[in-house]
């Protein structure tokens, strides 16, 4: 059987090209994810643990008493010890403001973990070195001066003395890094009223060659206060990695989940391909059975072919995956630390690829063992067997659909724990839809074919060919409908989640945009700039003053008193009705709960020696610990209250990100100015969801490519199977372009049916996911939305790709002369 399998692969290698491509792409996807994540993990590990990489022992102390350093250096076995301080430093360079994550540079060269690429290390309190990525992003050069804000009352400048090699990765290359001298931190401590000995510090320690680390650690514990933590550098590094591994692991699980989807789609395509191959080789199988081959021999031959193809495809996929991971690591910057190859996971990925190929081929292989010689020599299949198989599939699919629907119904009626049952029910329902494909896909194909028959003989022949093998059409459509369905589910879910959260944000924040400076005057030019932002339809200025809320059980409390002018209704959607007189103050529900206040309570507010009493009305308009009154009421207690805020409304909330970006640009990080409101919340969420959606859609594109390979493979094998028919059609006058068009129509029909089912299922699952997430998050209402342009794009892409998949089979069929096709088919 091995010789027969090898001979078959040598004689007809083209039949297995699509299987090789599908399994190679799937394994390449998994291999690329594993290699890329391992490389990123190594980069994260280096960035997170590099500060202790040059030390042997680490001491974390709650205070930085100078006497501690001398005591550590006096411990026997300690050769060097230096303090390591960490903090943040705000700065402003040529490209705008930023925040440096700074560390102190050790005065002992052996304890310096970073390497300079240019310049020198900082030595004084007014010097700083920055990482390569920071220097490149902010256009900083050695010798340049940057304005810094270290939290003190005065601002100053610092000189950049050096550029430092900076580890980069997708996860660790986000923060700007800087390096300062110990003198900088000592100057900061000197200005701290709490005193220098109240700052926590980490000590980096090296031990003498041959010294016992355990004995040195015990001596350090005996010398230092009980609150000091002494550990080896390796222990600190492992603990740090344990705390930071969650983000990479979660991302890895997400990628591997998409890899599993691509393997599932590839498995369906492989099973379909082998089913077609078995149908094409029925006569050959019958002859083998007639000359003495058993059913087990034939089954082993097919499985051997699958095994050989799986091994070749998986090995090629691993190589391709490593190449893709190398490109990805080069883009993220983590390749600078070297490519990390996880050999065991790569071997497992290849093994999974081989296993999927063999398992997918096992069902068609099992059918070969049940084919008798006489049955195999018949020109057509036994339709009774096909009907019986369809009935079995329909019964199984009905059970899955009913079970999934029941679980979903329970999830949507449950008060808590909605998400997990909804996911389980959706999985069962989706599996039932896929399993039932042989039942409903032929019906849909027949409906499309009825329309096609009106467009000439070529369309009628294409429609008849599509209906000739309903099981094959269903299997081909199943792979594509899974991929399209998942993409549409994500798109509909993303659009619905954005609409739902935006509606919830509008309910919680009745004002679209607020720009506030607290109780300080807002610059006049800023008010004008906010009004001029594209998308802002109306603005109103708000005077604000700081006051003291008296008469509370827990004592007086500082609050902000905001006064709204007559035109406030142009920017506030609702909630202004209670503010009908000067003796009413609006209070937020959170503030009311915190202070134990309720609707209708009387409170007194003192502002600059004047006191006013208000009757409270609970409203969503005020921010936390703010009371909103009429502007005339505020003038009675604070006549000189400055214009400290501007509130605005947006004309089009679908452009939340653009409008919010315009407001941010107008504010330009002015000190003490804060942006808030429902539009800012919506913009942040929309940006996050759009990024996740783009990444997920790109990843699911792999599954779509595999499914379309299956469409092309089905047509290619169909061309081989229909050589005699194609030759007769050519002999009767069918032109080459008409033959190519016929195959293109068949591919488009399959893609159209798959896209229609995928879109329908995707919309349903997207709505289900939105409902489950909204109920799990406790949102008051669920808003369903469909991104029509995105959905249309997915359908159009599927149809165009289906037509493209027919190009190569069409060229092959058109190039074969009728006489040669008739000779090959005899």
UniProtKB/TrEMBL annotation:
Compartments (UniProt record): Cell membrane
Domain of life: Bacteria
Name of a matching Pfam family: FtsX
UniProt keyword Membrane present: yes
Membrane topology: Multi-pass membrane protein
InterPro entries reported for this sequence: ABC3_permease_C (IPR003838), Macrolide_Exporter_MacB (IPR050250)
Keyword match Membrane: yes
Gene Ontology MF terms: transmembrane transporter activity
Segments crossing the lipid bilayer: 12-37, 253-279, 306-331, 343-363, 392-413, 419-452, 473-494, 692-720, 741-768, 788-808
ABC3 transporter permease C-terminal domain sequence ranges: 258-373, 699-818
Listed GO CC annotations: plasma membrane
UniProt cross-references to PROSITE patterns, sorted A to Z: PROKAR_LIPOPROTEIN
Main location: membrane
Keywords: Cell membrane, Membrane, Transmembrane, Transmembrane helix
Family, per entry: Belongs to the ABC-4 integral membrane protein family.
Protein known as: Putative ABC transport system permease protein
Protein's organism: Microlunatus parietis
């Amino acid at each position: 059987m091995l010789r027969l399998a090898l001979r078959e692969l040598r004689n007809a290698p083209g039949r297995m090209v699509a299987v090789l491509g599908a399994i190679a792409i799937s394994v390449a996807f998994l291999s690329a994810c594993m290699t890329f994540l391992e490389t990123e993990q190594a980069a994260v590990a280096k960035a997170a643990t590099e500060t202790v990489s040059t030390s042997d022992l680490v001491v974390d102390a709650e205070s930085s008493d100078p006497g501690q350093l001398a005591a550590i250096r006096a411990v026997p076995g300690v050769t060097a010890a230096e303090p390591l301080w960490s903090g943040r430093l705000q700065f402003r360079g040529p490209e705008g403001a930023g925040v440096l994550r700074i560390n102190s540079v050790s005065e002992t060269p052996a304890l310096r973990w970073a390497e300079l690429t240019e310049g020198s290390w900082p030595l004084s309190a007014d010097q700083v070195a920055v990482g390569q990525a920071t220097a490149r992003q902010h256009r900083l050069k050695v010798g340049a001066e940057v304005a810094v804000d270290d939290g003190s009352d005065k601002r100053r400048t610092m000189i950049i003395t050096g550029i430092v090699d900076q580890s980069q990765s997708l996860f660790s290359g986000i923060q700007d890094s800087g390096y300062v001298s110990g003198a900088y931190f000592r100057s900061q401590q000197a200005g701290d009223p709490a005193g220098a000995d109240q700052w926590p510090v980490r000590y980096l320690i090296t031990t003498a060659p041959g010294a016992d680390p355990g004995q040195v650690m015990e001596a350090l514990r005996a010398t230092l206060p009980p609150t000091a933590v002494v550990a080896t550098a390796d222990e600190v590094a492992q603990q740090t990695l344990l705390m930071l591994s969650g983000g990479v692991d979660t991302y890895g699980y997400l990628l591997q989940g998409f890899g599993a989807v691509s393997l599932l789609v590839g498995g369906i395509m492989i099973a379909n391909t082998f089913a077609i191959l078995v149908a094409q080789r029925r006569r050959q199988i019958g002859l083998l059975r007639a000359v003495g081959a058993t059913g087990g021999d034939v089954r082993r031959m097919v499985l051997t072919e699958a095994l050989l193809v799986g091994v070749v495809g998986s090995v090629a996929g691993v190589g391709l995956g490593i190449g893709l991971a190398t490109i990805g690591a080069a883009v993220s910057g983590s390749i600078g630390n070297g490519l990390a190859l996880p050999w065991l996971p790569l071997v497992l990925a290849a093994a999974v690829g081989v296993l999927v190929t063999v398992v997918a081929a096992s069902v068609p292989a099992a059918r070969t063992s049940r084919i008798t010689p006489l049955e195999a020599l018949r020109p057509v299949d036994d339709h009774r067997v096909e009907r019986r198989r369809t009935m079995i599939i329909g019964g199984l699919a009905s059970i899955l659909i009913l079970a999934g629907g029941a679980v979903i119904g329970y999830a949507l009626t449950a008060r808590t724990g909605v998400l997990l049952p909804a996911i389980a029910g959706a999985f069962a329902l989706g599996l039932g839809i896929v399993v039932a494909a042989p039942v409903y896909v032929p019906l849909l194909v027949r409906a499309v074919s009825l329309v096609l028959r009106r467009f000439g003989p070529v369309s009628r022949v294409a429609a008849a060919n599509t209906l000739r093998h309903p099981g094959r059409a269903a299997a081909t459509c199943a792979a594509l409908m899974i991929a399209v369905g998942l993409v549409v589910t994500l798109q509909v879910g993303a659009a619905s989640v954005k609409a739902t959260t935006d509606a919830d944000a509008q309910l919680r924040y009745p004002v679209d945009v607020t720009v506030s400076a607290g109780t300080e005057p807002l610059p006049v030019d800023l008010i004008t700039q906010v009004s001029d932002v594209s998308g802002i339809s109306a603005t109103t200025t708000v005077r604000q003053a700081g006051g003291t809320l008296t008469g509370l059980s827990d004592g007086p409390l500082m609050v902000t008193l905001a006064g709204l002018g007559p035109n406030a209704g142009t920017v506030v959607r609702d909630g202004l009705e209670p503010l009908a007189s000067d003796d009413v103050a609006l209070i937020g529900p959170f503030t009311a709960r915190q202070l134990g206040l309720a609707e209708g309570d009387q409170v007194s507010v003192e502002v600059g020696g004047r006191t006013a009493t208000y009757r409270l009305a609970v409203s969503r308009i005020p921010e936390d610990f703010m009371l909103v009154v009429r502007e005339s009421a505020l003038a009675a207690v604070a006549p000189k209250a400055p214009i400290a805020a501007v509130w605005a409304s947006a004309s089009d909330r679908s452009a939340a990100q653009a409008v919010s970006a315009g407001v941010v640009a107008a504010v330009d990080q002015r000190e003490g100015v804060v942006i808030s409101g429902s539009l800012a919340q919506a913009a942040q969420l929309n940006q996050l969801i759009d990024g996740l959606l783009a990444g997920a859609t790109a990843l699911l594109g792999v599954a779509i490519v595999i499914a379309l390979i299956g469409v092309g493979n089905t047509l290619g094998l169909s061309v081989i199977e229909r050589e005699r028919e194609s030759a007769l059609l050519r002999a009767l006058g069918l032109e080459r372009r008409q033959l190519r068009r016929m195959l293109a129509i068949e591919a488009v029909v399959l893609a159209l049916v798959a896209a229609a089912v995928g879109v329908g299922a995707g919309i349903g699952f997207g709505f289900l996911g939105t409902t489950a997430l909204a109920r799990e998050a406790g949102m008051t209402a669920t808003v369903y939305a469909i991104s029509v342009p995105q959905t249309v794009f997915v359908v159009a892409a599927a149809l165009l790709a289906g037509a493209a998949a027919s190009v190569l089979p069409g060229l092959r069929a058109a190039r074969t002369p009728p006489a040669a096709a008739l000779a090959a088919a005899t």
